[in-house]
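Troubleshooting: if your tokenizer reports a length mismatch, compare your output against this known-good record of 343 residues.
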Amino acid sequence: MSQALAQITPAQRAVRVARPLNGLEKAAIVVRLLISEGANIPLSSLPEELQAELTAQMGQMTPVDRATMNAVIEEFSTELEQLGIAFPGGMEGALKAMDGHISAGAVTRLRRGGIGPADPWERLNALPPDRLLPILEEEAVEVAAVMLSKLPVARSAELLGKLPGERARKVAFAVSMTGNVDPATVQRIGASLAQQIDQQPARAFDANPVERVGAILNVSQTVTREDVLTGLDEEDADFGAKVRRAIFTFSHIPSRMTPAEVPKLLRAVDQGVLITAMAAPGGTETREFILANLSQRMAQTLREEIADRGTPRPKDAEAAMTTVIGAIRQLEGTGEITLITED
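Known-good structure output:
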């Protein structure tokens, strides 16, 4: 890098780039130059998203003239000279830099997100439902009632719907008894509940075991999926039943999707892939459900293409169905569709 900077003459430094470059393009030029000179750049320490963006940008770059390269190097060199001190990016980098200088308790608290809003109720509201549900199930009914009263209505309704029927009725009735609770008591309850959250063991996985197994089996081959489910039923019938409810396959589309959301599926999946999935043997019910909820013209076009496609190979049909299910899950994740929950 120093050799490249030394070769820049004052006249070259005065050259201006014909088209302004954005930051990512400039970074791609600098990284490409450093790599060409044999420099060891620890790009793996960057977030994977930035690594991918930088690599993709390098793949899109066209040849750069020397004047443009020199201008970018000069700007980069000036910024380096002005830089006073750098800090590690993200919480993990900060914890690594502070290793040996702060207590183990502080490290644990930071890893659990102990630094948050001053109001404990704001922090509780930001937590996912599965972190709050154990409190509603195990705490006194009065405490659970205060919690539901303090959280936003939408969040409280979601949590109440996840409670067993008898417990939900008791908590809902107890809400009627919270009218005379003073603000100081409500704040103390919130602080106590937040402290309980801090004391819960840190989890390595965001999703619960049922969701993780269900997600894996969703994209597994049918033979493998049925074999695993049979084994789960034999080992733990309750767990196996929950996994079955968490699974969403091509055959579940008629019972889990609403008719009005079918057109969104066509926009999210390549038409050839969808035709292959609908042409597979055994998918008659799903195929008819999809076609019945499209315009007559579109449905007729797809029927003709399915007939022309013929029966696909099992491997191709399985891959197409998996792609369709992945698209539906993505639509659900972005909130564009809402799948019907099975009892």
